[in-house]
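Assess this one:
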Amino acid sequence: MEKNDSTYCKCLYYSANALARIMTKMADEAFASTGLSSSYAFLLMTVNRKPGIRPKEISEHMQLTPSTITRLVEKMEHKGLIERKSVGKFTEVHPTNEGRKLYHPIKEAWASLYQDYSKMLGKEEGDELTAAIYEASKKLEQ
């Protein structure tokens, strides 16, 4: 049975959200081996790359609101994968030993995600699409 194009396929909002849903499902499947959803995996990867990072910087790296980062950090702290430390008037986020152990499995899952969608789209096409979407998001954010 042939799949018909949606009535909304020429709408950027609709198409971007459809792509986001598909990519979120693929990412969550790729990161499932780590026991984390994709959002938590990217947060832990960010903290592992820069122990002592401040929540504001995490929100900039992950392009998420500070309140979303606070919520993610609290849940990851509850899981025992990261910890917050007060340094003067600032808060720093550090990986715990358990969080550090997940760094390489998370990177492997991320590489697997890239390989999966590259097989489906083609490596060059996937890389070009990624760059185009990122540039569009920067323009629209202004």
Q: What stands out?
A: Residues 25-116 form a domain with the Arc Repressor Mutant, subunit A fold (CATH 1.10.10.10). Strands lie at 82-87, 90-95.
